[in-house]
Design goal:
Elements (H helix, E strand, L loop, with lengths): L1 H9 L14 E10 L2 E15 L6 E8 L2 E8 L5 E8 L31
Antiparallel strand pairs: 1-2, 1-5, 2-3, 3-4
Length: about 120
Amino acid sequence: MDAIKFVEDTMLDAKALPEFHVGDNVSISYRIVEGEKERVQSYKGDVIQIKGKGKTKTFTVRKMSGNVGVERIFPMTSPNIVDLLVNKRGKVRRARLFYLRDLIGKKAKIKEKTTISKK
């Protein structure tokens, strides 16, 4: 229990990230520090899980790099997240999309959620 308290004390408060859900396609601008140099790298993929609560909340983003699937876990309260942009809203019925790991091609595509605007 002390480890969780330590993490909560050291992590910053959550930024005002836009609301996103599992199945959404997001672009994350992430600050990478290498020695004296600092750069911002863009990472685009589908959110396959959101895990945890409070300051220890994380989300996993999966992208295809060639024929290889690459997953990366981002803490919600990370000070290195510069920007998060939701590209597409996904229509899924699961909280964890680990079944995408076994699918290839069109079968691995997430359907887009359509919204009807009332006028």
